[in-house]
Amino acid sequence: MREKLELIERESLDQIADCQSLEALDKIRVASLGKKGQLTGILKGMGKLSPEERPKMGALANEVRERIEGALADKKEKLERDKLNQQLDKEWIDISLDKKQARRGHIHPLSQTKEELEDLFVQMGFIVYEGPEIESVANNFDALNAPMSHPSRDKTDTFYIDDTTLLRTQTSPVQIRAMKELGAPLRMVCSGRVFRPDDVDDTHSPMFHQLEGLVVDEKVSMANLIHTLDVFIHEMFGQDMQTRYRPHYFPFTEPSTEVDVTCHACHGAGCKACHGTGWSMELLGAGMVHPNVLRNCGIDPEKYSGFAFGMGIDRIAMVKYGISDIRLLFDNDERFLNQF
């Protein structure tokens, strides 16, 4: 039996050494150590040995098994390592970076315009106040004096989440939050994304950006509003930019106005960009804060008055940079963005 065990060991170790694949190695394992393998067959004959020989042959068989198992484990590790190296050689990825081809990013024109607007109003004494994009109907409509019959409340004009919650249609509810928290006097601006179910065209998008401003104090007048907006427009677009104030209606301001600016391309002379009118698109809406809005926020309208204004940051960017189509701001086309 000793000779048979030594023969099995030699043959198995030789086969393991010459093996070139994991599949072949597993066949060697089964042939040598499996339930029907050579070593198992030898051990089944242990009962025929004398009591003196039986423990000696059992110990030798265990040693043979351990040496074969050790050789199998070492060979398996080597074959797996070789297989991985071959795979890495075939599937390598060059993660190095050619610095000559690397391009630096830059601020998106919308973000740049937003930062410029906020910085400008901060220099004029305003604070920047933030609010959520998911807003309550109470803050978005009720506190802003919007009648229940106002078309902006329709589901065709507003993205409702449920009966009391919506995606804000304007940044005006942030003014409500600021007045309720900070009271009066107050001078603040807020900016961010707003949402309306508008059809997409060159000047409209279902998601766009607004910046709103609010001043509440004693003896605030329409003259203060016009002066503030004129300073803003001249600082943002240049001293030669002219403004035009047209009467309008907003539920939360009275009186209300829309503000136009002269065409960025012809500066009022009339050209193709402005269809010969000399005026660009409507830039912003503004007005004196309605007494009901102040009252809804716990501010005494007999003591305080205020003005508010709201503008599309997208439209400000379009006027400032001469962009004719709002969709360019959201397409992420590098040919467009690299111009900034």
From TrEMBL:
Protein name: Phenylalanine--tRNA ligase alpha subunit
UniProt-annotated binding residues for Mg(2+): 254
Subunit description: Tetramer of two alpha and two beta subunits.
Cross-referenced InterPro entries: aa-tRNA-synth_II, aa-tRNA-synth_II/BPL/LPL, Phe-tRNA-synth_IIc_asu, Phe-tRNA_ligase_II_N, Phe_tRNA_ligase_alpha1_bac, Phenylalanyl-tRNA_Synthase, tRNA-bd_arm
Domain called Aminoacyl-transfer RNA synthetases class-II family profile: residue spans: 117-319
Keywords of this entry: Aminoacyl-tRNA synthetase, ATP-binding, Cytoplasm, Ligase, Magnesium, Metal-binding, Nucleotide-binding, Protein biosynthesis
Cofactor note: Binds 2 magnesium ions per tetramer.
Pfam family, one: tRNA-synt_2d
Taxonomic lineage from the root: Bacteria, Bacillati, Bacillota, Tissierellia, Tissierellales
A biological-process GO annotation: phenylalanyl-tRNA aminoacylation
Gene Ontology, cellular component aspect: cytoplasm
Keyword flag Magnesium: yes
Family according to the record: Belongs to the class-II aminoacyl-tRNA synthetase family. Phe-tRNA synthetase alpha subunit type 1 subfamily.
HAMAP family found in the cross-reference section: Phe_tRNA_synth_alpha1
Listed cofactors: Mg(2+)
Annotated catalysed reactions: tRNA(Phe) + L-phenylalanine + ATP = L-phenylalanyl-tRNA(Phe) + AMP + diphosphate + H(+)
Assigned EC number: 6.1.1.20
Highest taxon above the source species: Bacteria
Enzyme class: ligase
Keyword Ligase: yes
Molecular function terms, GO-annotated: ATP binding; catalytic activity, acting on a protein; magnesium ion binding; phenylalanine-tRNA ligase activity; transferase activity; tRNA binding
SUPFAM superfamilies: Class II aaRS and biotin synthetases, tRNA-binding arm
Organism: Urinicoccus massiliensis
